[in-house]
Amino acid sequence: MSRYRKIHVCIWNDDKFLECSDEVKLVFFHLLTTPYSSPFGLYKIPLAALVAESRMAEKGYRKGFQEGLAKGLFEYHENTFTVYLHGFITYNPPANPNVVKSWGSLFGELPMCDLKVKFYRTLEAWCERSKGFAKGFAKGFAEPYRKGIAIQEQDSGTGTELEEPPVVPLGGRVGSHIPKFSDEAKGALAYLNEKAGRRFSESDTN
């Protein structure tokens, strides 16, 4: 599995990106390159864990994250901690059908949400341009996945035109302080403990 991400030089010709604040640009590059990301631009991580990993000031990171959401650079599903980077496979496409096939198991581990459905449909459409890639997709993203996606679309009533996912709450305004030991913070702590094999507990450092 590739641990490298491609960033096209034409990003500096993109008015939407150039008009972003410095915080947004740094957050966007972080989301592209964090070790917790996936090779296809859809992955699970609590926002609080992203803040901690970046070593940025929390207020600045959350301000940039909120602005990036508003500008449509990426999406975040609050309830499942799922990040979806728009256009990721355009610039980081699978090298061959076997790569697409290998993505299936990692995709299957992600929690079901609208963003998972959106990515599934995007990748499906991308793979249809080639018989080889279509075959790799069919093998990697087998029938149980297709049924699960169909059920999610039916339950949400979205079909292939999905509603916007819930935006992560920022205390009512950009960059505002989040109450100590929120559910998000507890989720981040549990996630980091699982990844690090540690048992850190909640504490107030302020």
The level of helicity is 40-55%
Radius of gyration over alpha carbons?
18 Å
Taking the alpha carbons of the first and last residues, their distance comes to 40 Å
Tell me about the largest β-sheet.
3 strands, antiparallel
H/E element order: HHEHHEEHHHHHH
From the spread of the alpha carbons, the general shape counts as: globular
- The proportion of residues in beta strands is 5-15%
Give a topology summary.
Layout: H1 15-18, H2 22-33, E1 42-44, H3 47-54, H4 58-71, E2 74-77, E3 82-85, H5 88-91, H6 97-109, H7 114-127, H8 131-140, H9 143-156, H10 183-196
Antiparallel strand pairs: 1-3, 2-3
Helix pairs in contact: 2-4, 6-8, 7-9
